[in-house]
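Hello Y.,

Per our agreement to keep a running log of every chain we model this quarter, I'm adding this entry. I've kept the format consistent with earlier entries: sequence first, then predicted structure.
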Amino acid sequence: MTTKSRVRLLVVSVLVLCAAGAGAWYLTRPASPAARTLQVYGNVDIREVQLAFNAAGRIDRLLVQEGDPVRKGEVVATLDADRFRDAVAQAQGVLQAREQTLAALRAGSRPQEIAEARAALAAAEAAARNAEATYARQETLVKADFLPRQNLDNAAQALKTAHADVDRARQALSLVLQGPRKEDIAAAEAQVRADKATLALAQRQLDDATLRAPEAGVVESRILEVGDMAAPQTPVMTLALNNPVWVRAYVPERELGHVAPGMRARIVSDSFPGHPFDGWIGFISPTAEFTPKSVQTTELRTELVYRMRVYACNPGGKLRLGMPVTVVVPLQDNAPQQRGDAVCRS
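Predicted structure for the entry above:
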């Protein structure tokens, strides 16, 4: 073998060894930072509420304009409430009258009523004694033929009437001493409860004439104006809630085993370069679907994906409805947490 052939063989051997070493390094090299993250794309989504009165009436005031921020419980509109206030006043008057009637029944008979009943019984007994004496005299005179028989009959009738008056006065005194019947008191109590329910309903209807924001948010649109007739099925305005804010993204099927609810995420928007938003995975759909056309990814659009909801911390309300964003989920040192919203407080 010539010297030149030996050199060529040596060069080929060295190249083979280098290639083998490069292949071994490639297979055993540490994963790149890109391989340690999952990057998906989506759009910002929020909840919207269509506010409506829980009563029918004419709108009296609208206190907010489109774009105004509102706090939870803030009054945003009112109805003409005169008829509701009149209903409350009427229910209050009826309830007060019923309560006075119930109080009188519970108090029982007054001392003056008892004294009056005793006096009536005493008068009836005195009249009965006089009727007995009159009957005895008439009986003696009739037997002696000094008076006709009719006088004795009249005296007997008067005596019976006097005895009946005594019995009636005695029963009246017993009723006064016992007081009202338990059934009458129970009926009065039931009527008071019914009147209280009527008053509570009237007060609720008056409260329903005031429309309040259920949560903090921003007024998107005013559907009705002052003077319009409102009803429970007719929205007055649309409110975009400040929280929660999330990203609707889609995870490829081959990456599904790498993510789980509660994992931390970073949300990047072209509107705020260099200022990512913290977030966490809140939901992964159990049902596969085809990638929607609105999602721009580098993968094939016919690939099966799973819808994922990534909640976002949104300081200052910078993330807005429909904004396209990129979601980056670290796949290492990112164990799912029980409460992902702790990310916003950390």
